[in-house]
Structure formats: C-alpha cells, structure tokens
Amino acid sequence: MRPISGHAMLNVMRTCSEPIANKARKIAVARQAHIIQLGEKLSEDRSDHVEQT
Predict the structure, then answer these.
(1) What does the buried/exposed string (b/e) look like for 24-37 if buried means 16 or more CB atoms within 10 Å of the residue's CB?
(2) In the chain, which residue ranges form alpha helices assigned H by DSSP?
(3) Is 0.85 topped by the overall pTM?
(4) Phi, psi angles (nearest 5°) of residue 4
(5) Are residues 3 and 14 in contact, defined by beta-carbon separation less than 8 angstroms?
(6) 16, 5 in Cβ contact below 8 A?
C-alpha cells in the first residue's frame, strides 16, 4: 500500500494527518458555534420588528 500524499512511509503521513484533522475539527466547532449565534441574533432582530398583540 502506498500513501496518497506522497510520503514514503505511512507513519509519516499519519503523523502529518492527525494534527490537520484536529485543526479541522476545531475550526468546524467554532464555525458551528458562530452560525448558531448568527441564527439567534437573526431571530432576535426579527422579533424586534414584529408588532406585539
């Protein structure tokens, strides 16, 4: 089996891939939290414009 990334050994590829995957997970969590915050703010902004009955 030959690594796709061009590394001669699979363990080198694995060593490089793990930190990248961890960074991607952190970015995804931060992105998801930001999207939730934007959705909450949008809901608040819309409710401010609705007349109270």
Answers:
(1) eeeeeeeeeeeeee
(2) 10-49
(3) no
(4) -75, -35
(5) no
(6) yes
